[in-house]
Fold this protein.
Amino acid sequence: MSLFSNTTALLGKELRTEFRSRELLTTTVVFILVVVVLFSFTFDASSAESRRFAASLLWLAFLFAASLMLQPCFLREQTNDTLSALRLCVKDPFAIFGAKLVANTLFLLLTELLMLPVFSILFNVPVFPVFGQLVLVLFLGSLGVSIAGTALSAISAQARMRELLLPLLLLPLLAPVLVASTQVTVGLLDAAPFMEWKGIGFLVTFDVVFLTALWLFGEYLLEE
Amino acid sequence: MTPAADPAGIRFENIEKRYGGLYALRRVSLEIAAGECVVLAGRNGSGKTTLLRIAARLVRPSSGTLTFLNNMQRANTELSQTGFVSHATMVYDELTAEENLLLFARLLGIAEAPARAGTLLEEVGLADRGKSLVRTFSRGMRQRMAIARALLNEPSVLLLDEPATGLDPQGVSWLAGTLRQMRDAGRTILMSLHGESEISALATRAIRLEAGSVIADTRTGASLPSILTIVGA
């Protein structure tokens, strides 16, 4: 069975289990909503400062959401030892990572897209004129977060202090992605919006490098 | 139960597994012939689970070699020749019984996956619960699901880690019946058990492990009581 068909079969499982339990999406959406609302109280929505700081606050909220969402990614495979069942079935373990990182990216993007209108209203920042470009940044940033986060989730799920380990490893690793994503978002939310292509280039490079590393070495992350 | 298409045995040569400085297995050498039904006995921490997980290729040994006899050494056939049942059910609670079997059948590349899933649900007595979520199942029903999942690819070698865990007496009888059919169909069975039971009575050979080493190995050519002594000791 090919890598593609294995990945799609597993992606179907990821989506089905999540939409059935709504465990991750509900928690994350509520959490990120609270964070964005709390942040909005600290700024005067009409000021230029709000426009300047909103991008970094937005990505900070997305980071919190991601660390919340990525934690159970491999952890729930341990409940019934289903990870072993998957390892016994798939020839290429990258199928397991592929399905999980696509699912994580989709869930993260969905959360972010749901949050954008709320963010736009609370921070008085128009996002719709630059919606297309914003979606591109959100996609590349979320993909980077998901690739690194999925790999680290596999590592931390087998560790003793797993709840502590993932954020500890994730935050330094994601710092470059967050900086680049925030820089691009700042440009897009500017009074005269512009696209920071250097940041986009960095995000694409990060995603390709980490995806390749995961493809090459992912098998070792799943070993007991 | 269909006969094993390609009977196969297992050879462990000087297998060692270390976790840091702790030895889970020490130079274990065993040869299990095709069609044998072998019980692994021993206290908690004696190395039974590690040996089974190495046989399932879920754990890489620190040293030594694992070989599947006959033509199972071919990389392409390896995954489709072994069935593994662990302490855990290895199925998804949030999927239905049918969805679970279909998922694993598709991952294994089984042609006619829906038909195979249907047949197995019949065989394990869950045909009427195929559309129910596994999380609504009792422990015994979950164990039936675990067995069904392990049999999807009609494995020649079946590895079972304490398969009777959590089963009531009726469940143990059902499991013993199923394993008897598998043994009679020529499948190689390697299972860990605690204590004597209907299931241990199926064994054609018993191996006792202690602190990661084999300390006893008896075949039924000897006598059933000696096997039961090893298993139940």
